[in-house]
Structure formats: C-alpha cells, structure tokens
C-alpha cells in the first residue's frame, strides 16, 4: 500500500503561526532535496517512521505547484492505522519540518507574511492538523487492476 499527495503547497498561505502567516515559494527546497535524507512520518513523531528518501521508500517531486510525494507504507500498526484514517477522510493533510535559510517579509496585511525562498527540509508528515490547508494525501493500492 502507498500514500501520495502534496506535502507543501507553493504560493499558499499557512494558518496563523503565532503572529505571522507563511508562504513557500517554488524551488525553496530545490537545493535541499539534492542532498537531504527526508523522512516521512505520522504526526511529526520519529517513532512513527513510514519511509525515507535514502531507502527509496519515499519519493519526492518538486513541481510548480508544490512538493509532491509518494511513500511505500511498511506493514506496521502505525502505517495500517494511518491508511485507514486517510481512507475514511479523518486525516487528509500534510506538514513538513524545515530550517529557513532565506526569506522575505511582507507587512502590508493585518498579519505579517513570511515568504520562504530557501529552506532545508528533513521531514514530511501526515497530520490531522496541517498548517497549510492546501496540502493533501491519499491512499493508493500497489495492485494493478
């Protein structure tokens, strides 16, 4: 069984992150993806490892609209529970962990906007509470029909 979706949606505003809103520009992760070993987790918990790029079980694609992913799920309780939550629609968003290297600020609105132009990413996660509502995930089958 696999999951796929959008881990980071470009040009999409986040929820309020405690006094500011954030937006990721396309190619912000470009350099980082060339060298990073990105992990796929459930709810940002490293004990809930689902896959990683270095093993080939997580594949990432940087597109014009966002950071797309596909992950081969392990046969674990965590992965099986996660796939059920996604299939039911209880869990349908993603998040990520990054270290911002370069950004710009826009103070024109009511809430400051941080525009991330370059960042190191080391994790994507399936979550019930995504900061970016434009992210998504779905379960896909390994079996060809």
UniProtKB/TrEMBL annotation:
Asked if the keyword Hydrolase belongs to this entry, the reply reads yes
GO MF terms on file?
peptidase activity
Q: Which InterPro entries match?
A: Peptidase_S78_dom, Prohead_protease
- Boundaries of each Prohead serine protease domain copy? 3-140
> GO BP, one example?
proteolysis
Keyword presence, Hydrolase = yes
Keyword terms, alphabetized: Hydrolase, Protease, Viral release from host cell
Pfam hit, one: Peptidase_S78
UniProt protein name? HK97 family phage prohead protease
Which organism does this sequence originate in?
Neiella litorisoli
């Amino acid at each position: 069984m696999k999951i796929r979706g959008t881990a980071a949606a470009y040009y999409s505003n986040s929820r309020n992150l405690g006094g500011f809103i954030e937006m990721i520009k396309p190619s912000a992760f470009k350099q980082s993806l060339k060298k990073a070993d990105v992990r796929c987790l459930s709810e940002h918990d490293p004990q809930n490892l689902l896959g990683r790029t270095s093993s080939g079980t997580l594949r990432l694609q940087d597109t014009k609209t966002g950071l797309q992913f596909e992950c081969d799920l392990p046969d674990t309780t965590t992965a099986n529970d996660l796939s059920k939550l996604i299939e039911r629609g209880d869990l349908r968003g993603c998040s990520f962990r990054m270290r911002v290297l370069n950004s710009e600020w826009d103070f024109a609105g009511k809430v400051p906007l941080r525009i991330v132009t370059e960042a190191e990413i080391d994790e994507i996660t399936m979550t019930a509470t995504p900061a970016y509502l434009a992210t998504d995930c779905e379960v896909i089958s390994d079996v060809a029909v």
